[in-house]
Amino acid sequence: MFKLTSLNLNGIRSATTKGVETWLEQHAPDCICVQEIKAQMPDLAGKFEILAGMKGHFHLAEKKGYSGVGVYTRHEPTAVIAGYGSEEFDAEGRYLEVRFDTPKRKFSVISCYFPSGSSGPERQEAKYRFLAEFYPVLHRLQAERDFVLCGDVNVAHQEIDLKNWKSNQKNSGFLPEERAWVSRVIDELKLVDVYRHLHPDTTGEAYTWWSNRGQAYAKNVGWRLDYHLATPAIAHLARETAIYKDQKFSDHAPITIDYDLSL
């Protein structure tokens, strides 16, 4: 069984002070995809290159304290690709692909952090540019290899993916254009939203992010923003999923899916 976790750390230094490494030692995934590392290589050196016995591979932002993604893995990749070839977004540290290829199989695990548009119209336009750029990247990848893309997509796809869907229809993260992009990825590219493949109807149990405002976490006023998007051959190997909420390492909860495959 291949246990794959995804977690937006909201800062690796912050998450480690809140016990994420101890939890990973107990939880023991094969790989964890992380987003919003919010650090540069000198910050990681000697401290965070290895986490809970897993070796880290990173794509970090040029801007300090911003974005950054990585994959920590117990298995040695056959290749590591940082960035997807974007003039605009590769500087923001949003895409890290680790390949575990064999003579008989091409398989990638991807950690990805989609832009947030919640800070204002300028970032929302950047988010739309990212979605427009990234769709053909997924299309090309899907034609070449099997993969699981894990990460903070910053979009709640359906009404069941957030608590207050009615009042959020004009807010970033639940805009019609964003939701339509996720639908296209599922309907046209045939990628599978693996959590929904296993749990098509859950609502409150499905949330992975809560605002720090008010008592959103205590009242479970959440959003499902963190996904495993997989090619069909991999998605059909998914056996069970868990969203861990007993401890709070960041404003996101880790989502883990077990796949019936070995690297």
Automatic annotation (TrEMBL):
Record's keyword terms, sorted: Hydrolase, Magnesium, Metal-binding
Cofactor or coenzyme needed: Mg(2+)
EC number(s) from the headed UniProt entry: 3.1.11.2
The keyword Coiled coil is annotated on this UniProt entry: no
InterPro entries for this protein: AP_endonuc_1, Endo/exonu/phosph_ase_sf, Endo/exonuclease/phosphatase
Cited NCBIfam families: exoDNase_III, xth
PANTHER family the UniProt entry points to: AP ENDONUCLEASE, DNA-(APURINIC OR APYRIMIDINIC SITE) ENDONUCLEASE
Name of the protein described by the UniProt record: Exodeoxyribonuclease III
Species name: Ottowia flava
Lineage: Bacteria, Pseudomonadati, Pseudomonadota, Betaproteobacteria, Burkholderiales
